[in-house]
Design brief:
Layout lengths: L2 H10 L1 H39 L2 H17 L7 H14 L3 H15 L6 H11 L3 H15 L7 H13 L4 H19 L8 H11 L7 H14 L2 H7 L6 H24 L1
Helix pairs in contact: 1-2, 3-5, 3-6, 3-7, 3-8, 7-8, 7-9, 9-10, 10-13, 11-13, 12-13
Length: 268
């Protein structure tokens, strides 16, 4: 490491170095000062590295970078896709600094030269034992792909590739795409009044079940999805706290779909 790089490292972790040196000096003289400074430097560097690899930060960065990659997959980013990314930032209530960060990652993701692997590898490790966190990540990405009304073939290829890198099998990917397509339609086409057959079919799609499913099967699907989208549970597993509102909205849509199916079945 050259002298300039060493100087930058010392300046960056100066707080830990100085505090460690002071503690060391009072307990061990000159050698304590040297040893304490070294330990303080290493401790602060370790703490900062751990923060950089925190699941919440990994999730946040990957969310907007992947969103940018999917938006650019078919050659151009539409106004609807940009509006969706902005709406996510608005619903997260990001401050100016975090919003700028999100925009930068979205912009990076659009570039074909931007390597997603350094983001996807740690994200895959986060998802290894957190399938519910993985599912809401993919739901956010697919909602972005559906922002302009449909998923293009190019977007689908990117989604499938990223999903597989993050440990989701092909049949699960296809099922998730179908469910998100139904959820997108269910969310956009509600006009109030008596439910149409199309609306009822979309509600079944949101839960990922057929209209022929028994009441018990419908309820089981609803419970599973509600458990996967519980905001407090997701935050404890690594969802950034700013995204809690997004999880709440997903849970509300699932609940609305279940309520509609239940009401229609009671009336029949």
């Amino acid at each position: 490491m050259n002298p300039q790089a060493i100087g930058e490292q010392v300046f960056r972790y100066r707080t830990g170095l100085v505090l460690g040196a002071l503690v060391g000096m009072f307990t061990g003289g000159i050698w304590g000062l040297i040893f304490g400074g070294f330990l303080g430097f290493q401790l602060e560097r370790g703490i900062r590295s751990a923060k950089q690899m925190a699941p919440q930060l990994i999730f946040f960065r990957a969310t907007f970078a992947v969103m940018g990659r999917i938006a650019k997959a078919d050659g151009r980013v539409t106004e609807d896709e940009i509006a969706y990314a902005r709406s996510v930032m608005d619903r997260m209530q990001l401050d100016e600094s975090k919003r700028r960060e999100a925009i930068d990652y979205f912009t990076d993701g659009k570039s074909p030269d931007f390597d997603l692997d350094p983001l996807l590898r740690p994200l895959a490790a986060v998802f290894r034992h957190r399938n519910d966190l993985r599912m809401i990540f993919f739901e956010l990405q697919m909602a972005a792909a559906f922002a302009d009304g449909e998923i293009s073939d190019a977007e689908r290829l990117v989604i499938v590739d990223i999903c597989q890198q993050l440990g989701l099998k092909r049949d699960a990917i296809d099922a998730l795409i179908r469910r998100m397509q139904a959820q997108s339609s269910f969310h956009q086409h509600w006009q109030g009044g008596a439910p149409t057959q199309q609306r009822i079919d979309q509600a079944y799609g949101v839960l990922g079940v057929d209209s022929s499913a028994s009441d018990a099967q419908v309820k089981r699907a609803w419970r599973k999805l509600m458990s996967q989208h519980h905001p407090d549970k997701l935050v404890s597993k690594g969802l950034p706290e700013e995204m809690m509102q997004l999880a709440k909205e997903k849970a509300q849509e699932i609940q609305a779909a279940y309520d509609l199916i239940r009401d229609v079945r009671k009336a029949s």
